[in-house]
Amino acid sequence: MILKILLLSTLSSIFIDAKISNSDAIDYLSKYGYIRESKGSLMSGPAAISSSNNVLKDTLRRFQLIHGLPVTGILDEITKKKMSSPRCSLPDFRPGGNVASFKAASKWKKKDLTFAVLNENQELRGQTRRIMSEALKHWSDVSGLTFRETHQNSNPDLKIKFGSRHHGDSYPFDGPGGVLAHAFFPEEGQIHFDEDETFTDRKKDGTDLKIIAVHEFGHALGLEHSLEQGAVMNPYYQGYDPNFKLGKDDVHGIQFLYGKPNAYKPTTIRTTPRTTTKRPIITRPPIATTKPHINKYWDFLPCHLEKQAVFLGPDWSTVYAILDDDHGFYKFDLGSRSWKKESLSRVYRGLPSEARGGLIDDKGIIWFFHDIKIYAYRRSQLLPGFPKKIDDFLYPKHPYAAAYKNKKIYLFKNWLLYELDVENLKIKNIHRTSTIFDGLSMHVDASFRYNGYQYFFNNEKMYKFDERLNRMESGYPKLTSDDWFL
């Protein structure tokens, strides 16, 4: 089996002083997956890009766009500084891959994992095990995972090791300032840290071990890189933050793999001291005695659960909602104001049950998205030639929602909006959500366009955006159980 390795590294000295030539930039962009070997494509490899300033400009624009830099297409100082920043050496794009706010590589077949620190960092002796437990707790707090420390001779799932240079695998470390750590995808369970690095604990100087460990554990649990700014799985090390926590994108990624946390699982990581075999005390959260909020008008499943998609039906007199976690497909009759369970395949033949979107453009075409495919319906009929595959590595695989504004289609992926050219099936631009929908300050799970308004959903909350006035309605967000979209 080919091992998949992830190396967290700073860049070589050619990048450290930010004296980056066009040739250096091409090597950098090629190394991290921004130049694709694709026949007939502009992104056809370093040789082609080096022979065309236009291609280099286009590739730099993509790099700048993705990483939130001013989009100039020029190798300016801001771009050089970004390329000089410490980062993980895993490419941002695999061959043939698409950009995604989070990407999952593989997963463990179980959710209760054991771990062991095989040896401690010399500078943080006596603190290493605590730091590793704290790092893993960031992941268990937001997912269905639990972690229990065990002895190293008990065949732990996650094996944490500090070593220098050649340390027992095929990927030797390179001394201070180079590779910081590396980890293997599931179910290898190997997480290695370079003992020659200056790791610190809650200090601004040096490299914070816990933050590096959280990133590496993310890889060991199956997450690839996130291109979302502020995500711990972002390829760039962002330094010590005393208020560090997982980003929204990190949470969505780990929950995609392992689900949401169980309300009754241990609140802390269980540790097994090396000097005793006594079982640790496990604390459980108290059972809430507060009565849940019940609205007499909307005490119904689709109002209270997370919505995967909300869209108008082909007869334009019903609204449909696909609910997450296999809760089904429901329709809401605008006349009788009543819910009823429905079969998705009866309404939109050929549409996968995991589809997102359902937006209606000014021509009355209803657009859906699933994985890297796009579906277009007029009424209930799939248009000829659809579904189509979107072959653009900027496309956010598995978009969460879609919206329509000023004759443009936008795809939501966490806090980013991807502007889609449906004629050419290419991403034209990437925006922050709030720059297109002013006042929208939450992650969007689903959106719905009706009667001059856009409705945005997040779990039980809803925003209402006035298309004519180009602003968010006051008093929002509201609970969908209190005020549905009418």
Automatic annotation (TrEMBL):
Binding-site residues for Ca(2+) 2, renumbered to this chain: D157
Binding site for Ca(2+) 5: A402
Pfam families assigned to the protein according to its UniProt record, in alphabetical order: Hemopexin, Peptidase_M10, PG_binding_1
Domain of life of the source: Eukaryota
TM annotation in the entry: none
SUPFAM superfamilies: Hemopexin-like domain (SSF50923), Metalloproteases ('zincins'), catalytic domain (SSF55486), PGBD-like (SSF47090)
Ranges of residues in domain Peptidase metallopeptidase: 104-260
Record: active site: E216
Free-text cofactor note: Binds 2 Zn(2+) ions per subunit.
A GO CC term assigned to this protein in UniProt: extracellular matrix
Keywords, comma-separated and alphabetical: Calcium, Hydrolase, Metal-binding, Metalloprotease, Protease, Signal, Zinc
Start-end of each Hemopexin repeat: 441-486
Binding site for Zn(2+) 2: C88, H215, H219, H225, M233
Single biological process term from Gene Ontology: extracellular matrix organization
Cofactor(s) it depends on: Zn(2+); Ca(2+)
SMART domains the record matches: HX, ZnMc
Binding locations of Ca(2+) 3: D174, G175, D194, E197
Binding site for Zn(2+) 1: H167, D169, H182, H192
Family recorded in the similarity comment: Belongs to the peptidase M10A family.
Protein known as: Matrix metallo ase-19
Lineage of the species this protein comes from: Eukaryota, Metazoa, Spiralia, Gnathifera, Rotifera
